[in-house]
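queue> holo job accepted (NAP)
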Amino acid sequence: MTSKLILVTGATGYIASRLIPRLLERGYRIRALARHPKRLKTRKWYSQVEVMQGDVTDPSSLPRALEGVWTAYYLIHNMSSGHGYASREIEGARNFASAAEAAGVEHIIYLGGLADPEQHIAPHLRSRIETGMTLRRGKVPVTEFRAGVIIGSGSISFEMIRFMTELFPVIPGPAWMRNKSQPIAAQNVVDYLLAALENHNGEGGAFEIGGPGSFTYRELMQKYAEIRGHKRGFLLLPCIPVWFMAFGIGWMTPVPYPIAYALAGGLSSDSVVRHGGAGETFPEVRLIDFESAVREAMKRLHPLEVEQVWDDGRDASLKHEGFFILHRKDRKAGEFIHRKFSFGEEWSNGQTLYFAPFGLCGFLYWAFRRLWW
Ligand SMILES: NC(=O)c1ccc[n+]([C@@H]2O[C@H](COP(=O)([O-])OP(=O)(O)OC[C@H]3O[C@@H](n4cnc5c(N)ncnc54)[C@H](OP(=O)(O)O)[C@@H]3O)[C@@H](O)[C@H]2O)c1
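queue> job finished
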């Protein structure tokens, strides 16, 4: 057991929820920073970490969170906070860098977005790059990783691809779907984040990370469909307004409208690794191919595998990790009943109803099913 204390920010988020168990396996002491700590109560690792309330846009909440910390992971983004999120992201990073310096933190590890900052890129990608630059302006050395689409159950970029491909026999999209992306397995993202903790060769650097292949967004969906055994067509339209696409994505997938708006805008440029230095600096990371990463993500398509992010004492209706979910806290949970249809699969334990939709009929079924459950 090492006594080194690691701060993981964005603890309610996707990447942190995958990183924390692996840090615990390695014997690190973990402090998890969250704006709403009660959201963490149902995580399997809750009792093994020290949970602290904090918000990077409130500098007064940071000194206590950073006290005694050896290395801090910066896994925060603010895209869902609406208009002006980019300036809030910069402000948060600035507050964090100076509080880390004051607390004597030795290293900050940041995961941002993959884009060529010399090109015209979407505002949310620009903001991810500028967040890294802001962190680096402080005196604490920063290791930055820049990732594009992350393949793993619960990852927002993967869930967008999954729901769109599951639901639409013919997938509508902008001509931008011809742009390229280089997806990376969630496990490899965590591998890099862990490698940077002990391997200091990358300190001060910004590393573009991606899996072994690059594909157009359309090819990504096509490959996902093949792995799932679905036949899918595409309808590429030259001028769909981003707000309209974001509205459809927000309605049908787990991605909320403001994030969908930002992500859809991000499709307008390539998101591929141009500088391959990550492989040389962190040779311990063994890259996983796209198909294996998707198959691994699909193994979690069972209610017992799903992270219960809604279970903080409220009723909830949400789309999450491949499911439409309805949770009623006033009911008692019993045994799971499983039903399979041509348009989807359903599980219910009396308290929570899960439906994995397939095709538009699945979507319509859910629209009615939730009314009578
Ligand atoms: N997942 C992907 O597909 C993907 C792809 C490429 C890069 N990345 C990068 O990976 C990093 C982590 O992403 P993620 O997918 O784990 O994000 P996520 O699931 O959306 O989590 C973001 C986290 O940031 C927290 N947060 C937001 N504003 C905050 C504030 N002011 N103070 C403290 N915490 C705040 C959120 O807390 P609340 O629960 O309180 O909102 C949440 O825990 C981001 O930098 C993202 O750009 C992700």
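queue> The two ends are 48 Å apart (CA to CA).
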